[in-house]
């Protein structure tokens, strides 16, 4: 790791160099002081030449202070780590340093244990630099399924494996219950890759990519050979790692392929495999190249006629019982999601036709509701509960097991809780435990009362709060606002803000300043 030291005291530079040398020997890594600079202006001139992996800088220097140096670096390099080393434990200095994404603030004389901990984190960050570049290339391929010749020339030097396999771990919102919209840090990412890569060969490589839906993880393995026994060990490790509370996820596995540019075409195919073949409550490894088994629908003409008779009588309890019976048949037959999805839509269609004839037509977004129900149900019994609750609320059934007034009041309490804890990690499991409610019913409440999924609802509330803070407290930095609305990573906050508001935080501030 190449280090730049910036300080106007030669004695401190020499002392700091000795400590760096001691740590290099202790950690058995190469820590190279690539440049010694006596003021900030000199440091700025030499960064491009020396290409340091980290800059350690004093605060109070002639010509250009350490804070001004950090500000100047951020104008041309958002990633270069800057560490402030100061004899002044001033909160004002710390606050200024935070504004420009300084990674740490060390006090003179530098504590060796604190320096060691920081160096270890910086080494991890440096090691991950090439990994992040490769992962960025893979993300670009996912965004452009039909890669061009220009993409070919950019990607091929980074990926030189003869074979690759892609694994899609889906529905991690159910399995893992990570707090929503909080990106994993480098250490967690490294642990995951180390754990799974241990089941591959020494010369193989693994990339881990969280996908945009917030529920899926793509694993891409670069392989020297396609060893089936090694693949089996890797599968067991993936299932073990992503299992929670005894529940494992379903995973889609691609065939071995030789051209990494095919990744953008394979991932949609893996999504389709998982969407169509997954059986609720039965985690599976689904091979995209394996033939599909014949599908046998369970909601037959007999059940349709029975449902129509129950509708004529207005027997809502009987309809709920019929739906439970149908769901039990799906479970007995091991019906995959493609069949369950189609048959739920068929049931909904019959109910809507009846409503149109008796009460008039109401426009509803059934596709989103049904899909969320399927993705959130951990068992067929839970699917039955969620489906009946959704239909009862939508068609205003009178069922002893459901009280719509109670559910409205419950959702109001949930909204107040989220608003009060908007700056903290929030998860479905947290709300389930707090309000003693099942996951399918909870997700149904969000969809029915807000028209949004849980993640969409929380994101929208966080973005509204961020916009209010920008308007009423224009001097607050984006980093401070991000932390106040629950985002530890400012860059991630900015991406989410741009995706929801249609403009960056800076553009939003500028536009509001012009109009106000």
Layout of secondary structure:
Layout: E1 2-6, H1 10-27, E2 32-37, H2 40-50, E3 54-57, H3 66-76, E4 82-86, H4 91-99, E5 104-107, H5 112-143, H6 149-155, E6 163-169, H7 172-175, H8 186-197, E7 205-210, E8 217-223, H9 228-242, E9 251-253, H10 263-277, E10 285-287, H11 301-313, H12 316-333, H13 337-358, H14 366-376, H15 380-395, H16 404-420, H17 428-435, H18 439-450, H19 454-472, H20 478-484, H21 490-501, H22 505-515
Parallel strand pairs: 1-2, 1-3, 3-4, 4-5, 9-10
Antiparallel strand pairs: 6-8, 6-9, 7-8
Word description of this protein:
The protein contains 22 helices and ten strands. With 516 residues, the chain is of the alpha/beta class. α11 runs parallel beside α13 and α13 (337-358) packs across α14. The longest helix is centred in the first third of the chain and has 32 residues, at 112-143.
* Helix vs. strand class: alpha/beta
Kindly provide the radius of gyration, computed on alpha-carbon positions and rounded to a whole number of angstroms.
Answer: 28 Å
Count of individual beta strands: 10
Task: Estimate percent helicity.
Answer: 55-70%
Protein name: Response regulator
InterPro entries: CheY-like_superfamily, Homeodomain-like_sf, HTH_AraC, Sig_transdc_resp-reg_receiver, Tscrpt_reg_AraC-type_HTH
Pfam families: HTH_18, Response_reg
Keywords: DNA-binding, Phosphoprotein, Transcription, Transcription regulation
